[in-house]
Every structure is written in C-alpha cells, then in structure tokens.
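haha ok so turns out i had the wrong file open the whole time. this is the CORRECT one, sorry everyone. sequence first:
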Amino acid sequence: MKAARGVGRTVRDLLRGLLLWALVSAVFWAAVAVIPGIDLPSFRAAMLTTALIAAINALLWPLIIRIVLPLTVLTFGLGSLILNAGVVALAIRLVDGEFPPFLGALASAFVISVALMVLIPALSFDDDARQLRVVRRRARAVTDENRTDVPGVIMFEIDGLAEPILRRALEAGHVPTMARWLEDGSHRVVPWECDLSSQTGASQAGLLLGSNHDMPAFRWYEKDTKRTMVSNHGKDATEMENRHSDGGGLLAERGASRGNMFSGDAPRCSATMSVIKDRERSGTSEYFAYFADPYGLTRTITLYLWDVIQERRAARHQRRNGEQHIDRGGLYPWMRGAITVVMRDLNVASLMGDIVEGVPVVYSTFVGYDEVAHHSGIEEPDAFAVLKQHDAQLARLERAIEQAPRPYHLVVLSDHGQTQGRPFRQRYETTLEELVEGALAGGDVFAPAPSDEGLSTVGSAITDARDEGSTGSRLLARATRDSIVEREVAIGPNKEAMREENSTDAGEHTAVVLASGGLGLVSLTEVDHRMSLEEIEALHPELLGTLTEHPGIGFVMVRTEADGAVVLGAGGGRRRLSDDDVTGEDPLRHFDATAADHLRRTDGFPHCPDLLVNCMYDPEANEVAPFEEFMGSHGGLGGWQTHPFSMVPSPWSEPTAPIVGVEAMHRALRGWLEETGQTLKPHAAADAS
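then structure:
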C-alpha cells in the first residue's frame, strides 16, 4: 500500500513538473516575442531553451555561486541576477545560434524567475524544498551532539513589537501562525518589562550577554574619553560587547547569532554588528543556500520592488488623508525594502540551515516591523502587513523543522515596544538641541543627526560580504574598498551625520545633546565629572527651568549635592529618588509604577548624563513626543515602549515573579533552555562562586 502511494505521488510530481515546464516555456516564448534581439522560431525551441537553462543551472550554478557569493551578497543579489542572465544567454545561443543582447537576456531571466515564483506555489510545489535540499547538501556533517532528542531552540525576535500591539494583531488576524499556536495550546504569551533605555542596544546586550550596565541610551557621551558611543556603529558595538561579555552569553554553547546587534558569545554569526570584523565567527557562507537558488533570488527582488511600491502608496495615503505623518521620501523606501524583504529572507535562509544542521540554540532579529512602525505608526496597515510577513516566516521554519536531526522549539519575543506620537519638532516647532542651546548662558551645542537603527543590519551583511575570507572575497574587498565607509558599517542618507556621531570633538562644544527616541541626554562639557544641579544652575541658570517647564518634556533627572538624584517636573514638582519623597506634583505620576526604579538604576551608571530628559507622555491618548523624527518611538519611558513580550512553549515553567528588566529576562531564558536539557556556559560570576 505504501509503495502504491509512493508511486502515485511520484507520478503526480512528474506530471506537475511537466506542466510547470510547459507553462514556463509558454511565458518565456511570449516574452521573447516582444523582447528585441531574441528570435526563437517555435514553442518547441522555447521548451528546449528552458530545459537547457534548467540543466545549466543544475550543473554549473552551485560552483559559480560559491565563487562569487560575496559579490552576490554585496549587491543584494543583483550580481546573481546578472549571472542568471548569462545562463539564459548561453542557452539561447545553443538553440538559436546567436547570443542575445545583454538587456534582452536579463529581461528574459527575470521573466522566467517571476513565472516560477507564481507557478510553483500555484502547482502546490513546496517553495522551500529546493532551498532545504541545498542546505542539506552543504551542511556540515551533523554531529552526534546535534542528532539528539534534546530540543533545540530558535528565538525569533520581532524588533519593537509591544505586547498590547501583539494582542491587537492576534485579534485582527494579522498573525495567523502565532494565533494557531495559542489556540492549539502549544504556546503562551509571557509579558515582561524592559529597562530604561527601551531600545535594541541595551535590550539585546542584556538578553544575549546577561548585562547592559552603563548603557543609558542608544547613543551617549562619555566625558572620560570625550566621545559618543552609538550602539549600531561597528567599532562601538564591538567595544560594548567586550565590556559586557564574560564568555557565558546565551548562545555561547555552540549557538548561532543571525542579524543581531550583539553575538551572545555565539561561535557562529552572520550580519551581527559586534563581530563583523571577527572572521573566525562571522561571514557570508551562511547565505550560500539562499543565493544557490537562481530563482529564489528573483522572488526576493520582486517582493522588494513591491515593498517599495507599497511604501510609496502608504505614504501618499497618509498625506492625502491629512493624517499625522513624517517625511518618508528620499532613499527611505528603497532602504526599507532592503530591511523588510532582503534581510528578512537572508535571516530565514540562515535559520533553515541552522535547523537542518541541528544547531542547539539560535537567536535572530527581524527589524522590519520596528523600521516601518517608526515611519508609519505602530498600528498602521503597512506596519501590520510587515508583521504578517514575519508571521509567515514562522510557518516556513515550522516546515523546515520536520527535516531537522532533533526536535525544535520556536520562541517569539521582542526586545522592547513602541509608543505612538508625533515628533517633538512637529508639535512645538523646535528641537531639544535648539531648546538647550537657547537656554545656555553661552556656547553652542553638539547634536549630530542620529543614524537609522534598522540600517545597521543591512550594513552588517554588506561588511560580512566585503570581508569574507575567500580569494574572491579579497578581490572584491580591494575593488570596493573606496565605495563603502571603512570606519562605519551604517549606510543610508545620513552617512555623513553618522560619521560625525562618533566624533571625538564633541567635547569642544559647551553641551552635547543626544536623542534616543523619547529620551534626551544632555552633557555639559565644562567639567570632566557629572555636574550637579547646583553647578548647572550656577553656570546656566535658565537651563533647568526652560526644560522642566516646556510642555513637550515630561521630567528631567539630575543629581543634587544634598539629596542625590532628583526628578524635576513642571511647576516645581520634585521627586527625590533616595526615598521617593515628593514635593508638589509628582513628575512621574503619568508613568509606570516602576519608573522610579528604572531611574535609580540609570543614576548609578558611570556615564549617566548631567541631565536625563524624558519627553512628555499623555496617558489618555497613550502618546509621546519623541526627540527623533518618528511616529512610533522608543528609548525612554511612557506607554507601550517598555512592554515587550515573549511567546514560549506552554510546558515551560511559569515565572515566579513579573519579569522586570532585560537581565531578569536573560535569566528566565537561561532557565527555560536548561529545562529543555541544553547545557549553557556559566557566567564568570557563577564560575567564581
């Protein structure tokens, strides 16, 4: 009976394959009829050409792509598309007797790829099957340690998704895979609270390395070195990891890091900001399976172009309807496509390889929702559309697990949330740096334009490609050394500003003002130590009053000589953090009950700024007024930005207390991994004890 079913399945697959061949040939023949310079005399010739293309791809493509893989990654796959055009040109030459013009061959290759993208799922072929076959062929021999009944764990981070937004997405049907898990009872949602600052740098350091001490924001100024530190700049991310890693990170025991800011001490990484220069741990070889499929790439290119079109439509819709919005023009639509489509597909391809190989624990960040929500808004249709695509990748990973040498748990989590609100500049026709500069008794302000957090992942992949250790990669690096910024991996329209953001000349200005979403950091450079309230009032008597009385500012934290850290608000409101004594109206009355604890922790950081400024928060509208040009923001306190989630397997133990802080979440994740039977490397403190 089984044999009969197998024969029947083989016959059906054969018939579907023949039908696919005929349909692709028909599309190809129709296309070349209107493409100048190509003359195929018959449908039979078109079928023969497509058969030759398939044969050449099967025999030569794996060898070719192995040699030129870094170039393919560096060009986001356009190099692969050009190679595919060469294959088409060769097949046409063998059939027609003449080479077609290059643009004609390129157009023909694209038509074939799009036809396959549409027809393969329509004929019920498994679109991931080919990629998984390539992964299995190239995967390292599965070790005995990986061929086990001990479950592996894939941690799928959806950057910036707040737990309340997840609930709304579940109710509205935007995330059917996760909804099915909850309905089936295989998973449950565990809310938790991240730290101040609520952003990827501090959150991922805590989640993956177990410590985010002295990371007061996404970017901050250090008086002792007179330089700014920026989480998504390569050298700074490396230094941050060196400061916080003790070798016992979450991924240290044979794990993998994919598309993250920090490595979690993983021995294998791709597109990971903190280790892009570590050739022993980081490289593009993990992307081989993705680019080894000459047609899978065109699927990504097509989806990329569609994403650009969708972004332009969404932005135009906001403008026409008079909705609150920010500028979404320039290069942003094109860079958004690289983040939401290209990097997403590269990460998924790497995860599939990890699953088929049986890697015990993997952490991967998907930044698409966070990027789109920044520019559109946290509940806009195009933000939910990207979230739905993230959910679809979970279904793909589920199917890949069926071919793994071990069982796997899929875990979905976020590192922070976002809170909606028009930017400070739009609301009040001024910026934080202008407000500070106008209140100084003299001097000027250093306030570099912030770089885009989401673009750092794209920059990591490019740098991985450029620095790949193969001969072809080294040739590529020489050819492109002048085209990519050597010092930074961040790319995009703010490239010059990004260079300035790391400037060591900041100390030459009277004040350094840095924004991390709704959190502002003001450092006065006249002295080398953290200035007290009394010192600030003596030098700049109007500064504190200007900030605390502004309607766009919720509170200001400053250190006093007599009472230690205090939180100041409008109308003379004051809260002493040492004992929570309040004078006047409590400046923290609109914020979560844990706000004072978060501020006490930040006050203890060696690089806490002179003035920690949090933008206003309207609890009725659940809105903030961020200091950066975002519609959805995070980084400070107020609203959903500090309320991420984790969706974990239901059998995993319940937390004994609310999870507050990313270091607490790190401990929870370690505990859950140990419950599955995994071995984790201990932290240095645990070794000592």
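The domain at 154-423+641-688 is CATH 3.40.720.10 (Alkaline Phosphatase, subunit A).
again sry for the mixup
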